Each structure stands twice: as C-alpha cells, then as structure tokens.
Amino acid sequence: MLSLYLTAPASAAEGTADRKKSDSAAEPITLTVTAAAPDKTEGPENGYVAEESGVGTKTRTPVLEIPQSVSVVTRRQMEIMQPSSSSAALRYTAGATSERYGGFGDYLDMTRIRGVDADYYLDGLRIISNPGSWLPQIDPWSLERIEVLRGPAAALYGQGTGGGIVNQVSLKPQDIASHHISLSYGSFHHQQFGVDSTGPVTDDNSLLYRFTASGLDTRGQIEDSRHRRLYLAPSVTWRPTDKATWTLMATYSWEPDIANYNSLPADLLGLNNSPYAPLDRHKNYTDGHFADSTRRQQTVSSLFEYQFDNGWTFNSNARYMNVRSDIQRGVIYGYQLVNAQPWLKAYDELTPATVSTFSMDNHISGDIDAGPTRHTLLAGVDFSLGRLNNALYSVGPVLTDPYGPDYRPDLHPDFTASRAAPWREKQQFTRTGVYLQDQIAWNRWRLTLSGRHDWSDTDHDTNSYSPVTVKTRQTDEKWTGRAGLSYQFDSGLAPYISYATSFDPLLGSGYDGKAFRPVETKQSELGIKFHPEGSKTLLSAALFQLTQSDVKTSDAEHLGFNTQAGKARTRGIDLQATTEIVPDLNLIASYTWLDNELTQDATNRGKTLTQVPANSAAAWLDYRFDSGVLSGLQLGSGVRYLGTSYGDPANTFKVPAATLVDIAGRYDLGQLSSSLKGTTLAINVNNLTNKRYVASCTSAMYCFVGQDRTVTATVDYRW
After folding, report:
1. 191-249, pLDDT tens digit by residue?
2. Strands 207-219 and 710-718: what pairing?
3. What predicted TM-score, i.e. pTM, was given to this entire model?
4. Which domains are present in the chain?
5. Which one of 54, 517, 594, 627 has the fewest beta carbons within 10 angstroms of its own beta carbon?
C-alpha cells in the first residue's frame, strides 16, 4: 500500500525533528513530502565552527552528515587573522597547500588540496580561468566565509580537478542595517581601505542592499614592484513574497599595477648543494624598463530561490565573468656559466589574455518520508560556455651578472622583430551536466548517493611558434558519482566511508599546441568527525587514496607551459581540529601527510610531483579577555610548518622545510571610552621571525621565494 500526502509548509523546527525521526515505522509504507528548512546553504556558525555547509551536498546539511572532509573558514576567523587573499585564509586548513608561490601568492589564488590544484568557486559557481593568464581573484574583504571540500566533487559540480573545491561565499544584503569602515597600513608601504554597508531599502524589508569596496596600494618585497587594486562589489536582494528571493550581485576589480616576483634558479638560492653564493632575494633581476602588468575583471551574478507550498525549493544561480590580463614582465629562467660564474638568463614576456564565461546551475530539492527513511532529494542541470584567448611573445635570453652592479638587463624588446617568438591560442567551450542526489536517513545511518553525466565540447586553435594554425575539436562525456555512508552517534561522533570520481576536460594546451587530455580522478576515503551538539568543537580525521590519470604538471623544459604525465597516486591523512578549549580560548589545528607518486610515466615513474610537501602542519591559538582591565583585548598566535617537497620532476633535489610564526592582537577601543564605541585597533604580523625560505620549485630553473615578515596595523569602525 502506497499513499502520497502533500502537506502544508511546516516550520524549520518541525523539519529538523522529522529528520531525526527513525526509530519507528508504520505498517504501510507511507511516502510523505514535507517542508524543509529554506535552502540557505551557508548555515549557522558557533564561534569558529560552522555547523552546516552546502559545499558537500548543495543542500543545508550538518557537517557531520557530509561523507567527505569539509573545512570552513568563518568570517570571525578571517577578522582575527586578516588574510590578504583567499589562499592566505587557508593557511591553517588541513589538506591545503596555499601560497606555494611565496611572495607572489597575494596576487594568485592557486591552492592545492591533497596535492592537486583546487577548483575555485564563488557562491557555488565555478570560476573558469584562462590557463594562459593570471587567475581571477576575489578580495576576501567581500566574503562571508570560505568552504573547502576535499576530494572529488564532480558528482554535483561537474568537471573538476578532483583534489577538491574552494567555495568563496559572498557577503549578501541583510535586513538589519550595519556599516563598517577599515583602514590599514603596514610593511612595504602597504595602504588599504575597506567599506561595507548593508541594510533595508524599504520599510517592509522586501528590498535590501549591500555595498562592499576596497582599495589597495602596496610595494612588493623586491625592488621596483608595486600592487594596486580597486575592488567594488554592490548587491541587492528583492523579496517580492515570503517564498521568493532574488539577489543580484556584481564585482569590478581593476589592478593597474601587479608586482613582479622573484623566480630564481635553485642553485642561486642555496639549494641543490650549490657551490654558488645565494643571491639577494630583495633585488629585482628582471628588466625594469619593461614590467607593466595589469588585470581587470567583472562579474554579474544572479541568485534566485523559490520555496513551494509543499516545502520543496528551486534554486537558479547564474554568473557572467570577464577577465582581461596583460602580463608584461621580465623573467629569469636558468643561468649560464661565464668564466666559471653563473650569469642569469633574462627574458621579456608579453602575455595578453582574455576569458569570458557564462555559467548557470538550476536545481530543485526537498524532503520525502518513505516509511522509516527520510530522503533529501536533489536534481539539477547546469551548463557553462566561454571563450578564451591568449598569446605569448618572448624576447631573450640576455645574460646578466647577478653579483655585479649592473644586474638588471635592458632588452629593449621589439615584438615585431623576427627574434620575437609568438604563440597564440583560442578556445571556445560548452559544458552541460545533469545530476541527481539522494541523502537517505535511517535510524542513525546516513547514506549519500550522487550521480551525474557531463558533456563537453571544446574548439581549439593554436599557433605554436608557427604561422600554421592547428585546429582541433575535442568532445568528451563521462559519468561520475559519489557514494558515502556514515553513522551518527548521540555523542556527536560520526565515522564515514566514501568513494567519489571526477573528470576534467582541461582547457589550454602544451608547448606543442596539442590540447590536453581529460584528467580522471578516483578517491576512496575513510574518516571520522566529532561535534557534540551545540558545542564549539569540530574534529575530523580522514585517510584517503586518490588516483589520477593524465596529470598536468609544470613543463621543466619550456617556461610558462604545462605538460601531462601518466598516472599519479596520492595516499594521505588529514586532521583538522577547531575548538573552544575554555570560554574565549580558541584552537585551530591541522596536519596533513601526503605520499604522492607517479605510478605511470615515460620519464619519471616512481617520482613525486613538485610542490607537494610530504608533511605540513599548523596550529593557531587565540584568547579574548571579556572582563577586568584587559576586557576587549584579543591575542592570537600561530605556527605553520611547511614540510620538504621535491623541486623538480626528476626529484634530483628537495626544497627545505620552513617553520613560520604569526601573531595577532585586537583591542576594542570602546572599552576605553564610550565615544570610541565600535572602533577596533588590530595588529597582525606574519612570519614574525622573518624566516627566509623558498616556498616551492617547479624545476631547478624556477623557484619561488617565500614571503618576508609583514606587519599591518588596522583600524575598524562599525556602527
């Protein structure tokens, strides 16, 4: 006997109670569609702990019930640590290798998760970037939180790298008016301002607004380098009824100057048992008359949600993004011995690049009771299309003596001359996917089943240092999925096991102009989470094995290009702890162990990929005084350990480990005088001991210098 009942909307509390119900079942199997909480996937936060997240399921799901490792960097955590980029915000996150480009990391969000390049998202939609340009970047000032899902996410999000995703959640309009102004000054002539204002436009709160803006002007840690940026993010939310919500958002970022960075040969940085004296890391060994890099990006986004009377929810999210970067810079790639002394090989490069993309994701979700089980169902379709153009013009090399007074070259590049080597690429792509998910609750068991089918078409035109255009068309389609099972103990303990797959039809091409083959990923994961109900504690541990085919790696023979290896296998452990030890004393700690190996490759079989440290760990502790003479003071300190990694594909040398110390302090000046209410003074110091280190190398010719000590003072005013 099967009956179907459509019920009137219930309260969120009733939906939660229904979700926990499991101990009894009626004789007939009754299928009941009930109202669920609105599909607000951000979820509540308790201190530094995010209790719910939509990054793993696209529904509002307790972190304990997501059968994969999830970490969330909350707004409160970002306020004490003051990260300069999304990558910097992940310094204390398990599994994440952020800022692997050292002092240049503030301008590129290129995090690796479990040894694999992460896919960056903004409000649940992927940021599709041009492989030949500097990646789009979202200012953390405009973010509410940053969610990290470790492992393949293709079953819901479509084509991706398989290591994991970083979902940046924007600040959105609120129905309570609030305003925030921030001013900061620091090392390397760092000057920055931030503005954030939100509130209702109409008396009935049907129309809300938010305006976020920031400006940055700072020098780089090497001579003659500068970074300037203006970032604007207006948004408006319209609620015509109590069931419909429509948010329109836009961002505009203009960077008229982007600082250069020191990429130098390993032998000249004291690595690889080199007999040569290390170079001065603060000198700029590139052509100072040529450097002039800019980046401009614009986005327009639409987030629509409608709640039906039966409790089901429809979401339609869309974004248009356009990014143009003109990279005009000098680079150092290797050296040559002149009279037994190393002279640098200097080049000038011009790389104009554009990318225009449109993405849309539509899905419907709701809860169904079927006898003793509760099903949270999700069905959706998404698609994206885009056009990418980029070119590379290179002049050089010119030899310069890095130890002499005239260490900077002057190449006088003429890109119309025959010595300029042009390389051009154009791509157009369309991607479509359909997906289904069922989150099944029975007694204390939680079973998550996800499945998806993707179609991808890419037209690729390349001039690889030749007037002849090579035209290719690549068509791919693939099934991907995920299955995860967990058990929820009353104590807040939740062991789980999961298996997930993904595939990624890569954009871009290698030095030879041939389009990349799709990367396929498979992962098995066994883990456990602990979060007592209502507590400010979330502990997680995961053991995993991730295998990939056609892995993309840096091309050691051709500067600025990538190549594809064979198959890679990564085994590892990641541990994450976020807890309030005692009231106002918070701890964030993480540890990651990775055993990475190329299991199939013509040249480097058995070797480890570059920029993948075997061990990394971090711990942050802060305390807020809420009484006595120190009331309003918050002090924090952290230690980051970056383990050794191999510096070239052949594993001929290692990049040494480094231990870095960060400290922070904030004081509520309103404790001194009521006239200063809402004013906060903060001091942040990163790399307190000014440790000189190499962040990573992609080859013996291309290593990245770590970030020096930075000190920043910030004054915030809220009302």
Report:
1. 999 999 999 999 999 999 999 999 999 998 888 889 999 999 999 999 999 999 999 99
2. unpaired
3. 0.90
4. 2-718 (2.40.170.20)
5. 627
